[in-house]
Amino acid sequence: MSKETYSASDLERFKSVQQLAYKAVVHVRGILKEGMSEKEAASLIDEYLKVHGVDGFFHYGFAWFGDRTSFTGFQRPLLLPGEWIEQFSPPHFGLEFLPTNRKLQKGMSVILDVAPVLDSYSADIGYAFAFGENSEVDRALVDLEVFRSEILKMVLEEKTIAEIYKKTDSMITEMGYKNCHAVYPMGVLAHKVGKIPFTWLPPTKIMGFQLQTFAYLFKQLADETLNGVINKSPFWSKKTDSKPDFGLWAVEPHIGKGVIGVKWEEILVVTDSTAYWLDDDLPHVNFWKSQKSTQYKLKQK
C-alpha cells in the first residue's frame, strides 16, 4: 500500500471533518424518536452533513438498531474464493448492512456510522448508544475503552496487523463478547482513510459508498501490486502480516453480545516515528472520562 504523510495543516483538516461527522451523529441521536426507521436515521445524518458543507462521502450514513447492531444473521461479504468453500457461502455484497425499515424501540442499542468527505479530506466514524435505558449497552460501552489504549500500544510496539487483530480478538472473547467487525467486508479492524481523488466527479452511490472511495482503495491495492510488496493491504485483517504503514487509519473495534452491539471508530495517525489518535475530544472518550469522574465522586462520598 502507498505510504501517506500529511502536514500539520492537513491533519487539522482531517480532524475538523472527523469532528463534523461526530457532530452529525450526536445531533441525530438527539432527534431520534420511537418508531423511526434505520433508513430515516441514516438520511438525517447525510442531510446534516450536506447542510454543513460536506461535498462527498467515503460512505453514506449507516444506522443499525437492536440485534442488527450485533450483526445477528449477517454474513461477511466479499469472501475470497477459498473462503466460499470454508464457510459454505456463495459470494455476496452485504445488502444486510444497508439501512432498513427496522423501527426504533425503547431500550434498543443503536449504532450510527458515517464517513464524510470535505474538499477531498475524509473521516470515518462510528457512534454507539442505547435509545433509552439499557444497562447492558452501558456496560459494553465501558468495556470498549480498553481497546483504544491497547491498539495504540501494539502499534507503537510495531506489532504486525495480524498480531494486533488476533490480540484484539482474544481480548473480546475473554470479555465475553463476540467480534462483530469480523463480519465487515474483508473482516477489517481498521482501514486506510485519506485524501479522496476525483471529488469533482458527480457522486455515484454504490452499496452506500461513492465511486471515488473505490478509486482511493484501488490505488492503495495497485501500489502494493506494482511495488511488489507482499501481504500489505489498506485493510487490517487477521491475515495481514505487515505493520501499519504511514498514514491515517480508521480503527473500529465492534463487539456484541446477544441483541446488543457497540463500537467506536476514529482516526489513528501513523508516522515514520510514532503513532497517536488524531483527536481526544470525541464522544466515546468523553463518556469514559465522565464515568471515571462519577466513580471518583462516589468513592469520595
Structure description:
The longest helix is centred in the first third of the chain and has 24 residues, at 8-31. A five-stranded antiparallel sheet has the order 9-6-10-13-14. It has helices at 8-31, 38-51, 81-87, 135-143, 145-156, 161-174, 211-226, 283-300, and strands at residues 56-65, 109-118, 121-122, 125-130, 178-179, 190-193, 205-206, 209-210, 235-236, 247-251, 254-257, 260-263, 266-270, 275-277. It is globular and about 50 Å long. It is an alpha+beta fold. A hairpin with a 4-residue loop joins strand 13 and strand 14 (275-277). The protein contains eight helices and 14 strands. It has one domain (8-295): Creatine Amidinohydrolase.
Descriptive tags:
301 residues; five-stranded antiparallel sheet; alpha+beta; four-stranded antiparallel sheet; 8 helices; 14 strands; Creatine Amidinohydrolase
